[in-house]
Every structure is written in C-alpha cells, then in structure tokens.
RNA sequence: GCCCGGGUGGCGGAAUUGGUAGACGCAGCGGAUUUAAAAUCCGCCGGCCUAACGGCCGUGCCGGUUCAAGUCCGGCCCUGGGCACCA
C-alpha cells in the first residue's frame, strides 16, 4: 500500500464508487425508519464560499451518521435561483440573469461533487424553473380564492433619479446605491398573504418544538410579538364632523397621564392639518425621506410638530394636543399613539425636547419621581400603583387596565385587544428575476387570478437590462398584454414578481416528489416529511424559518400534507470568520489584503509580533477577525483549499475547529494540522497493511491483556463512548478530538500479537467514527484493510463497558473547596474508608490543622471535600 | 433604538451540564533523525513565588447563592447576528 497519503486519487475513486453504486439515491420504504436531512440550499452566486462548505459538511456528517445508524436517509440539494444579485450581474456583464444563474449552478454543482457530499441528485431542483414556480403560482391563486391574499398600499424605497424601487440593501446612508440620490418612502399597491391569521398557531406550536435552539424560538416569539392591550379612541371634531383618533396601548393603566398624542406623517389627521399649514407640510415631506428599514427609523432623532388639532381624552374630557412624530410608524396598529411621558421613555424624551407636560400617574413606594431625567422604574408595571388618576388611584397594573378597559367599553370608545407585532407578508417585488405574480387586471372584471390550466405564467428569460435597473417585463407589452380569463376582453398581467422567500418556503417539501407533474406535492411528501434535521445559518432564524413554517401550514390546510411543522430539529451554524489586514492610504481609505498574501511573525511565546505583505515585505496593519467577505478581502476560496489538501482535510478542519453553532475562525496552520492528522492515520494504516499480520479477534485476547494494554484499551473505548455521545448532541469538534486521542494511543502500541489485535480494533473504531466527517479516506482504508466492502454499510461501533472499568479510582481531596491531594483507592472502597484515606494524607492534615471537621462530602468516583 | 447570542492560555476550543479549569489541535520552545533542510517522531508549554515539595492568583468586570461556581442569580462593560425588499 502507498506510504504517502494522496487525497486527489482516493477522493476521485470514492466519488466514482458512490456514483456507480448510486449510494445516495433515496427511495421511499415504509419498512425502514426514514431520516430526512436538509441543508439550506444556496443562492447560485458564482462559486461556493466557506460558509457553504461548513453548512453542507455539517449536513453531510449528520446524513452519513444517520445512515450508519441504519436509517433510510434522504439528503437532497438544489438552488435558490431567483434573486437580486442576478440583475446586478446582468447589467454589469450584459447577459440575461437566467444564463448567468444557470452557468453558476453548473459550476457550483461541480464543486459540491468534489467535496463528496452524499446528495440524491435525482431530486435536484432550481426555483427559477417554470415547473417549480408553477406550483407556488397555483397555490397563490388558491389562497386568493380562500381569502388569504389581498392587495393594499405599502411603503417602498423610491429612487427619484433612477425612477425605481430599491431594496433596503440598495439604500446606503439614505441614498440610492447607483444614483446616489436621496431615497424617498413611497406607497404603492402590493400583494399580501395573511400570515397574521396564523400568528397564534405559529406562536403556540413553538412551545413543543424541543428540537429547535431556545434562542431561535425566543427570537420568533418576540418577532410575532403577542401583546394584550386596549384599543381606544380620542373623539374630536373636524370641520364640524365627529371623528375618532384610534390608538393601541399595552399600558392602559397610564391613560390618566396622557399629555399629548402623536400620529405618523401619513396619518389622515396629519394630512388634513397640513393643508393650510406649510410648516407642517414641509415637516411631513421631511418625514417621508429616507429608507423604510426599521433600524433606520428607530435610530432617527425623534422630531415632531403640532398639528393644531386637539382631541378629547375619553375619560377625563380634557383637550389633548395632537402632534406629528417621525417616530410613529404608519402601518403599525393605527399609526397613532397616546403619549404618557412620565412612564414611556420615548415619550419622556420627546416631551422634554418640546416642553410638553409630564404627569406622574404611577408610583412605587420608596421611589421619588422627578422630571429631571428618565429613570427605569417609571415604566415598572409590576410594582407600580396608580396615582393622580382619580377613581383608579391605588390600583395595580392589572386591576387598573381592567377597570379602564370596561369604562372605555361602556362609552363605546374602546375595548381590550390582543395584538401581534407580526405584519402580513408582503410578497410583491418590483423586480424582474422572480416568479411572476399570476394575476390579471381586467378593466371590467377587476383582479382575476390566472386559471390553473394557464399556469405557469412563464417569465421570459431572454431579456435585456438597461442601466436604471428597472424590470424589463414592465416594458414588454407583448408579455403583459393579455386577455381576461373571465370576459375575454383586453387585460394586463401583473408585472411584479414574488418575493424569493416564496420559493424557499416550500422547496423542502418539493424535494420529496420533485418529479410530480400533476400536483404541487404527492403522497411521497407524507412519507418523508417533516424534515428530521435542518441545517443553516443563524441569519435565517426569523424570516425564512417563519415563512417556511407558515407555508407548511398553508400546504396542510389546502390538503397536501398532514403534519403541522416542517422542521423537527434545527441546527443554526455560526459564521466563518478570518483575520483581516489593511493599509491606510493618504486619503484615509483602507485597502484590504487577503490573509494568503500576508506573512505573520510570532515571538517566542507564540504571540503575533508583525504582519508583512509577501509581495513587498513591508508591514501591514492587523484589522482583527471578521466575517469572510469581499469588502474586507478576507475570504478563503474553498476550491483552492480542496486542490491543495483534498476535500477530507477541509471537511475535517471545519468540523474540528469549532462546534457547529459557533463562529469558525479560519487558520491556514489549523488546516495543516487537520491534514497532518489524516497523514498520521494513513501512515499507521499503511504499516498495518504492509505488516500483513492477521491478528486474533479482540474477544479472544481480551482476558490476557497486560495492565498497560488494558489502559490503552480503556482509552480507546472511553474516547469511543465520548464520541458517540458527542455525535448524538452534534458536537463534532470533540468527535474529531476523540479520533485524535485514539490514534495517539494506537501509535504507542508495539508489534506483539495482542498489541496488533488492539491496533486492529482501534483502527476499525476510528475509521467508523471519522467516516461521516472524512468519508473518502475512511472509505478507502476500510476496504483496503479488509474490514468490509463499504463502510457506509458497516455496523456502528459500541463501547465495551467492561473495558471502561478500573480496579482503582482516583479521588481528588479538597479542604474547604481547594484541591490538596489526590488519592488512589480500590473501586469498591466504602465511603467511610475513602474518607479515612483522604484524612490520612499529610498535605490534607496540614490544611485542616487544629480546625474541627464540620462536614465531609464524598462524590462517588470524583472527590472528597472536607469542610473544616 | 428594539430583539437574540457570545466573552475561558499567545490562538481555536474542552470541561458528559454545580464537583480536579485548560482535553484535542494550532503557534512557540527543546530534543531525536538528517551532511543540511523539509517531512516525521518524542518532550515541555496560564501567570507569579520556590532549589525542590509545594504555595498564591486565574474562566470580561462588580456583587450574591453554595461544602463547592467557567457553569446558578443580580448589576455593569465589551463584542457578534437579526430588524420584514440581501439571501
């Protein structure tokens, strides 16, 4: 057998073996326990990045592990092929988004194959294929019939120069990325799906979703944001007509402290007041500048202006001035709020800024209220009681809310209401590269959904982009002019396309029956679903995962599937990060250098002393560790790594360096270390092979092991036990370290028959433990060393409990919680005898001194703590 | 601004979930092999004090609970992710 480890050769061999034997083709088999393992599919951006490699390695490790546990595993792969970057590339490269996308897919598919991922490629799909998006178009029309879809006005970022809608990502510091013009908020009609109808189920179901990380569940709960409050009205008169200003509050107990109301710039009341108030009109215009992203809105300086209109407090009858505030969001609730500056931090600062009255209506015993500065306790609803509130004085939060709500209800000016922060899902995009929304606007019949037999509405792929970035189909009458399915008259198609989350919300289900041509899903979906294990980036914790859960319930309610949730278990992987290096130019701009072009030197303690650019030998600045990105030029190309070290090393490194849910710091030296381990294992195997010894089975020699051989075997089985446990909890870094420990132990064995038998046992264990992680090398060695034909079909190793037993046990002896001695006692020693032995130790006695012994704690097989 | 994470040696991380802090690896140092280098193998490797035995300190900071805290509780600091049109 070859002495040197040659990954390129054995990896190609293993891959063609899997291909020939169709090792990963999954077939429905009700006799076997199924396991559906899914990694989030990639956007075909051009080539794989390390984040993909990490994600897909985790998924492949889980798939192969489950398969070796005997499960019927499905692991598919596909392409999230619609999206904004393809349009940018189209303008830049003067090629249609479709051809750019398809060529990226082809290249990236080759990369995935080189990495040895065990996918069932027969189920591959790309979301830009009409056979795929046809079904979500159909579902949308179905939802329209079920009254789960509606159209309403909604805000977008408008670039006044390019005359186009911008994504939040395309708004940089309030300006359009291409034109540099100040962005405006503009309302346009858009399609929505009623996810809020499912808010309660989406929320309550999460209580049972034990397979999801608690942090993701918490994030989703907060996103849905269920709150109990009171919706009520301030009556007022406008032009002699009785009107009502409606607001929602979770703090009805503070209603007696309202000193003003604030409405959003878009609110009808504000619009009305601005008619003969140029200052207000100017302010409203100002409010409409800037993007729609919530982070921008929430960090803006809080500004306002009075409308000159007053409303009547529904309980006190007082006149309350109404302001327009830039911090009040139109589209949340009623776009208006009651302001209680004494007990709401935002209102407090606003009132201080504009010299509005602040009236304390909540008090906590022992605290002193003052209007000088905001104090956290002002908002404490748990401990506070009402003051300055007439008949409500002395009531606690709950009693006050109940009393106030029923008083408002009696006046027919309000009632208790449950509200959600969650908003309906806006699915319209004014872009080209997406699935057309299957709706037709007929001047006679209004909105008419495209009938099933006319689906799909195919997006034309051969198009040209102009520099403004506007959608080509909006300028293609030959495409959008059509006839009305109902009256047959002239009509126009909807030219907006779907949000790409529409495609990524159901692909997991389509994989189960990717070739179904008569329906969206067929019975196979009920065999494979739910996905047993879903793996993807933490950045998808809310939006994608919530939309997919919602979609799943829609699919269930139209009768296509019969389970409630799509993803049984979820693993959110951390980011891949790397060092950054830069030089500052005279203008103060940073120029970033790729880590592979920089040499780093260390002092004798191993600390970094300097970094120099290889090309000129001059120093560069060290910029810290950041997420791999183009802008910081700190990306490492997986392709290059696979060529240099082989896929197994790259996979091993990514699994070993961090636990899957934490960020992974790239280090070239660390990759060397992973490579070194595989070479070390290879060398050991080559020696075993060439020695040609056929040792006796371990069972025959286990009774004749020497003490040191017993120690070696215990180390091997302890590591095996730990690794099996770590597989079950998906901590793969310690699985790898267990393999390293075993190999280190095996290196210390000699040439005797018994040592060789141990070696054979240990190598067999290591190969199977490492099999899911570095599949090519282990596939080769398993066969070459004669363990079997196909490691994927082998039996998972079990730790031998008898090997773990020890004759003597080490106890740590503490005096007052500090370690003072270590004693060795026979395994069957009684508690009393252990205590005696601990007290007999000289150093222990020294620290007890003359103090009386108050207490002795003995933790079996661990420690003795003497309290003196 | 709001929501959710994370801070352990020079570095990545481990500590079987309250019981010996630093497994495994990287970097570094020393040795073997070599004419030499690479590769490989072996050893050392938190800080301070000590000739040694050993001692003191140490898991972002301050405080608490406990026989015992990296782990639990309260407060603070730093740092990463998400915020609905990036995917």
How would you describe this structure to a colleague?
- The protein is of the alpha+beta class and 868 residues long.
- Helices cover 35% and strands 22% of the residues.
- It has a 4-stranded parallel sheet, with helices on one face.
- The two termini are 64 Å apart.
- The protein binds one RNA strand of 87 nucleotides through helix 7, helix 10, strand 17, strand 18 and helix 17.
Short description:
The chain is α+β, with helices and mostly antiparallel strands and 868 residues long. Helix content is 35%, strand content 22%. A hairpin with a 2-residue loop joins strand 8 and strand 9 (241-249).
Detail the topology: elements first, then pairings.
Elements: H1 7-20, E1 34-39, H2 50-68, E2 72-74, H3 84-93, H4 97-114, H5 130-145, E3 149-159, E4 164-166, E5 171-172, E6 175-176, E7 184-193, H6 199-204, H7 214-224, E8 227-238, E9 241-249, E10 260-263, H8 268-274, H9 278-287, H10 294-299, E11 304-312, E12 319-325, E13 336-339, H11 345-354, E14 362-363, E15 385-386, H12 397-410, E16 414-419, E17 425-426, E18 428-429, E19 439-442, E20 446-449, H13 477-480, E21 481-483, E22 490-493, E23 497-498, H14 501-504, H15 507-510, H16 524-528, E24 531-537, H17 543-557, E25 567-573, E26 576-584, E27 590-593, E28 598-602, E29 608-613, E30 621-627, H18 638-645, H19 647-657, E31 664-665, H20 668-691, H21 698-701, H22 707-728, H23 732-747, H24 753-770, H25 775-784, H26 801-804, E32 808-815, E33 818-826, H27 831-840, H28 842-848, E34 855-859, E35 863-867
Parallel strand pairs: 1-2, 1-24, 10-12, 24-25, 26-31, 32-35
Antiparallel strand pairs: 3-4, 3-7, 5-6, 7-17, 8-9, 8-16, 10-13, 11-12, 14-15, 18-23, 19-20, 19-22, 21-22, 26-27, 26-30, 28-29, 32-33, 34-35
Helix pairs in contact: 1-25, 2-19, 3-4, 8-9, 18-19, 19-20, 19-23, 20-23, 22-23, 22-24, 23-24, 24-25
This protein binds one RNA strand of 87 nucleotides through helix 7, helix 10, strand 17, strand 18 and helix 17.
């Amino acid at each position: 057998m070859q002495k040197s480890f040659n990954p390129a050769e054995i990896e190609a061999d293993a891959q063609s073996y899997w291909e020939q034997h169709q090792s990963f083709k999954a077939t429905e088999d009700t006799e076997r326990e199924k396991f559906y393992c899914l990694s989030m599919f990639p956007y075909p951006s051009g080539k794989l990045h390390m984040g993909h490699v990490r994600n897909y390695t985790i998924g492949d490790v889980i798939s192969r592990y489950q398969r070796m546990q005997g499960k019927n595993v499905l692991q598919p792969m596909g392409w999230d092929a619609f999206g904004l970057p393809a349009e940018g590339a189209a303008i830049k490269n003067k090629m249609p988004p479709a051809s750019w996308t398809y060529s990226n897919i082809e290249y990236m598919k080759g990369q995935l194959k080189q990495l040895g991922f065990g996918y069932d490629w027969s189920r591959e799909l790309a979301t830009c294929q009409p056979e795929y998006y046809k079904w979500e178009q159909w579902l949308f029309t179905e939802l329209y019939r079920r009254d789960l879809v509606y159209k309403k006005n909604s805000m977008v970022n408008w670039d006044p120069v390019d005359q186009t809608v911008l994504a939040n990502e395309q708004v940089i510091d309030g300006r359009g990325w291409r034109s540099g013009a100040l962005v405006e908020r503009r309302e346009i009609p858009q399609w929505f799906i009623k996810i809020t109808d499912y808010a309660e189920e989406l929320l309550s179901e999460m209580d049972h979703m034990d397979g999801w990380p608690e942090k993701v569940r918490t994030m989703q709960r907060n996103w849905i944001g269920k709150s109990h409050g009171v919706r009520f009205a301030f009556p007022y008169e406008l032009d002699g007509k009785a009107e009502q200003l409606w607001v929602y509050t979770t703090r009805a107990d503070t209603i007696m402290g309202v000193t003003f109301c604030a409405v959003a710039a878009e609110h009808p009341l504000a619009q009305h007041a601005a008619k003969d108030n140029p200052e207000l009109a100017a302010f409203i215009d100002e409010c409409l500048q800037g993007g729609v992203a919530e982070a921008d809105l929430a960090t803006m300086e809080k500004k306002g202006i009075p409308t000159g209109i007053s409303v009547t407090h529904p309980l006190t009858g007082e006149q309350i001035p109404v302001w327009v505030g830039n911090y009040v969001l139109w589209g949340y609730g009623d776009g208006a709020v009651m302001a209680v500056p004494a007990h709401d931090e935002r209102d407090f600062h606003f009132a201080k800024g504009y010299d509005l009255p602040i009236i304390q209506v909540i008090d906590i015993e022992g605290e002193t209220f003052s209007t000088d500065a905001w104090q956290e306790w002002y908002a404490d609803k748990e401990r506070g009681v009402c003051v300055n509130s007439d008949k409500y004085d002395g009531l606690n939060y709950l009693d006050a809310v109940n009393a106030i709500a029923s008083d408002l209800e009696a006046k027919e000016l309000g009632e208790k209401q449950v509200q959600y922060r969650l908003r309906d899902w806006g699915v319209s995009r004014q872009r080209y590269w997406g699935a057309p929304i299957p709706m037709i606007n007929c001047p006679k019949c209004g909105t008419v959904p495209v009938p099933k037999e006319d689906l799909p509405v195919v997006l034309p792929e051969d198009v040209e982009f102009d520099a403004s970035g506007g959608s080509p189909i909006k300028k293609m009458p030959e495409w959008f002019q059509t006839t009305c399915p109902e009256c047959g008259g002239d009509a126009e198609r909807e030219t907006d396309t779907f949000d790409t989350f529409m495609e990524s919300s159901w692909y997991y289900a389509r994989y189960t029956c990717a070739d179904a041509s008569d329906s969206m899903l067929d019975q196979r979906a009920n065999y494979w679903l739910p996905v047993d294990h879903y793996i993807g980036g933490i950045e998808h914790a809310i939006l994608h995962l919530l939309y997919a859960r919602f979609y799943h319930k829609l699919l269930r309610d139209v009768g296509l599937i019969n389970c409630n949730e799509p993803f049984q278990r979820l693993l959110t992987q951390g980011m891949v990060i790397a060092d950054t290096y830069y030089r500052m130019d005279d203008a103060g701009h940073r120029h970033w250098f790729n880590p592979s072009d920089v040499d780093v030197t260390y002092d004798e303690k191993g600390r970094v002393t300097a970094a120099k650019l290889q090309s000129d030998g001059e120093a560069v600045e060290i910029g810290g560790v950041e997420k791999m990105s183009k802008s910081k030029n700190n990306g490492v190309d997986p392709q290059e790594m696979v060529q240099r070290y082989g896929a197994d090393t790259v996979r091993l490194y990514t699994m070993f360096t961090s636990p899957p849910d934490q960020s992974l710091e790239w280090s070239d030296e660390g990759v060397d270390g992973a490579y070194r381990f595989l070479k070390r294992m290879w060398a050991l195997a080559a020696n075993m092979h060439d020695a040609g010894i056929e040792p006796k089975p371990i069972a025959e020699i286990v009774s004749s092991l020497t003490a040191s051989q017993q120690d070696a075997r215990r180390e091997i089985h302890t590591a095996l036990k730990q690794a099996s446990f770590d597989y079950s909890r998906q901590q793969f870094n310690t699985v790898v370290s267990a393999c390293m420990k075993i190999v280190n132990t095996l290196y210390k064995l000699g040439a005797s028959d018994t040592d060789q038998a141990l070696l054979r046992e240990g190598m067999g264990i290591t190969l199977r433990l490492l099999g899911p992680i570095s599949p090519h090398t282990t596939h080769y060695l398993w066969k070459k060393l004669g363990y079997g034909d196909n490691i994927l079909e082998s039996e998972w190793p079990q730790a031998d409990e008898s090997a773990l037993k020890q004759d003597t046990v080490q106890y740590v002896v503490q005096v007052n919680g500090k370690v003072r001695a270590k004693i060795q006692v026979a395994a069957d020693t009684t508690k009393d005898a252990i205590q005696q032995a601990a007290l007999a130790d000289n150093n222990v006695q020294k620290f007890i001194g003359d103090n009386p012994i108050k207490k002795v704690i003995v933790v079996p097989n661990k420690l003795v703590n003497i309290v003196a």
